[in-house]
Amino acid sequence: MGSEPLDRKLAAILYADVAGYSRLTGEDEDTTHRTLSEYLDLITENIEVHRGRVMHYAGDAVLAKFNAVMDALSAAVVIQKDLETRNQDLPDKGKVQFRIGVNLGDVIEDRGDIYGDGVNVAARLENLAEPGGICVSESVRTAIGKKLPLDYESLGKQRVKNIEEPVRAYRAQLKPGAVLPALHGTTSTERQLFREQEIRFCTASDGVRIAYATVGKGPPLIKTANWLNHLEYDWQSPVWRHLLSELAKNHLLIRYDERGNGLSDWDVGDISFEAFVRDLETVVDAVGVDRFALLGISQGCPVSVAYALRHPGRVTHMVLYGGYVRGRHKRGSQEAIEQGQAMQTLVSQGWGQENPAFRQLFTSLFIPGATAEQMQWFNDLQRITTSPENAVRLRHAFNEIDVSSLVSQVTVPTLVLHCRDDAAVPFEEGRQLAKLIPGARFVPLKGQNHLILEQEPAWPRFLAEVRDFLATG
After folding, report:
1. Domains of the chain, with CATH numbers?
2. Average pLDDT over residues 227-245
């Protein structure tokens, strides 16, 4: 029994401890204890909202484990911001400040707790943090990259207790004026579905690794990738999470991130319509489902059409929302071509900037009726989910799509939905898509958003139509 190898797992670890706890209790033990109890409740809530799990409390310290390093660091940032707000109402001597360390490393999980160097490093990083601050390891810094709007200050290599090799450490803090995608609006059902989601990778024929996820139970429904998806962050998104949650209630929902986007490989040679179709084929084969429904949104619609033509016996239903037959450069309009070229220029010059003004253009086109929170989230998602170079290449590939010679050959039962005042894809494109697919049912929706939002009147109609259609034999 003693020779069996220990089960080690890669995890993100958050360790939080009160700065100057002994001094605080010495000055006013009762008040410090009441404040600490309140703050520990707040920290626990933030950990759970960010899909982490508290492993244990040790007096004034909290140890938590996360499956995703971005969740761990996001939780740390939100915790410190929330505690800063709480402390504003307290006298200086009564302020309770935590130091937080975040590490990504191997842990041993046993009897409901975690052990190992991954945990020890997180605890040592906490000691290096300033009161109210966050210190992260190089493994966290590398894994996050530019995916969160944070500034990092290198502390160099640090020799810490009981760790043989020096640890390269960084102070992390939110960039001035930046915000993280809010998770507080998520429901318990949405958080549970995210915890159940399983992310895996498959390899396309040209060697590109495609990230895909499965969640839910029931008849399989595959959502074809569209621009600006992220398998993890979509669950945080006030733009996407309502749709994912509803679809996963009655289906095995299968999603994937487009090449050059999200958790899929960014460094890719081929970004083209043909590559998009092959990636869908790769995901279908990796999941191993024989027959399934397809959901296409935006440019996911023509990709779904091409797949259904190649594999008609595998697709039971096809739902197409906000889609088109022809990309901007193929619509026969000089105005559309000029608009596409102008947007390409804006992307190439402004996508990577911290100032969201350039990205706001796309947000205003995609979701003009969004709330301030939804717009902020979509602005941030654009920067997080792909590089400026890939954004340009993806936009060019979408502009060149033309399936007008294919759609009339579709034999799969199809439902097409489109908002009348869609600012990103003209309503006429959706109407044309339905007109050309034999027997397709067309549902015009009232609204102007390219991505359907939970608060708009069209959402209940969209959901009812999709559910009824997918329930048909």
Report:
1. 8-174 (3.30.70.1230), 188-471 (3.40.50.1820)
2. 86
